[in-house]
Amino acid sequence: MLPFNPNQTLVTGAFEGEVGILRSSGKFPYLKVMGIGNLEAAVNLSEYLFHNIQIQQIVFLGSCGAYEWSGISINSVVSPNLVYTKELSHALNLSKQIPESPDSFILRSDKNFSEVNCNAPTTISLAELKNPPEESWKSLDVENLELFGISKVAAKFSIPVTAYFAVTNLVGPNGSVDWAKNWKNLSHDLQNQFLQQFST
């Protein structure tokens, strides 16, 4: 995993289960859960960075679902290099999505892992998605609910973001059920792998 200075880095996740092992290690002075969903994560991160001006980098550990057309396997770990927020209902012509500006953010990906394009919508996609619903989705590989909000706020503070995601499920009707079965073990594996670089 990429090296970083713990005294200048915020280590974060959406909820305590994604960072609990790291917190117990006592090796990360700036570790904070930011909440579930783009809006919650963005609001909490903005407040945190305003009060912690020493933060120069963000490492986000979490989980994601893979789109079936990406060919990405469950149980793998990916590191996004680009994040969008595209709503499935818009792609299916069931709603009109308010445009984002910019519509994507570049991340500092870790090339030791599969680099992917991440979609971070405001809702969990439960429809059957064997193929991209429209042309712009063809380049999307995985789905996470917080990364766009985190990246947008980080960009305002000119702070780079590196994300590591355990792939817990395929996006679709059974995605939430599979996530519930898989996230804990995969998150623990990811956190322990992250801790290895700090072993003495």
Features of this protein?
five-stranded mixed beta barrel; 200 residues; alpha/beta; globular; Rossmann fold; 5 helices
Strand arrangement within the widest β-sheet reads 3-7-6-4-8
Number of domains: 1
Highest-level CATH class: Alpha Beta
Give the averaged pLDDT, no decimals. 95
Number of strands: 8
Helix content: 25-40%
Task: Output the CATH topology.
Answer: Rossmann fold
Instruction: Bin the strand percentage.
Output: 15-25%
Assign the structural class, choosing from mainly alpha, mainly beta, alpha/beta, alpha+beta, or little secondary structure.
alpha/beta
Organism: Leptospira terpstrae serovar Hualin str. LT 11-33 = ATCC 700639
GO biological process, one term: nucleoside metabolic process
InterPro entries: Nucleoside_phosphorylase_sf (IPR035994)
Protein name: Phosphorylase
Secondary-structure blueprint:
Blueprint: E1 9-13, H1 20-25, E2 31-33, H2 38-51, E3 57-66, E4 77-84, H3 88-91, E5 104-106, E6 114-119, E7 142-143, H4 147-156, E8 161-170, H5 175-196
Parallel strand pairs: 1-2, 1-3, 3-8, 4-6, 6-7
Antiparallel strand pairs: 3-7, 4-5, 4-8
Helix pairs in contact: 2-4
